[in-house]
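anyone seen this seq b4? input:
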Amino acid sequence: MFSLRHVLSGKIDSLNMGKNKNYENIAQVWEKTASRSGMSCDGSLWSENPISSPYTASIAIKAAELQGRKLAIRFLRQLQEYVFIGKKDISNIEVLTECAKMVGLDVEEFLYDINSSSAAKGFQCDMKITSEMEVTEIPSLVFFNQNIEEEGIKVSGVYSYEVYVQILEDMLNGLPAPAPPPLSKNF
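predicted toks r here
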């Protein structure tokens, strides 16, 4: 058995550079990511409606996590759709509130948690993990065994599906039995 956990990353000094941001460079990185992954990352967002404070979006994701892992994953997916497809500024509190409503979060609790120390500490913890694991490239996956004495395996970059299957097979000494597919829900 294995589970996935999203860990946020970034460099604090580059997350909130205000008016001094070089949006052209950020747009180029997004376009490069889109070409490698097939993900809809339109770099024109940075010239049309730039994200004013990525730090706020990161804290919002951690605030959503305080209401449960499944809701947080839905919230993250909705944020991605808003930014990549809708080109919305996901650091805007109204946009974050709309995302929270869309996925069924308790909006009052969510807005409280965005300003709480719990969400900030959660983000700080993620930043510490990425630093300790020396994650310098996104995407990166780190695979850990149940034996906490063993080191994790860090895979930076994009690889074929088969590479990840092989890593799991090696770590688990075989492939896990597939779980039944989830029931269809409207997100």
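The CA atoms of residues 83 and 90 lie 6 Å apart. Residues 133-176 form one domain. kinda curious what u guys think
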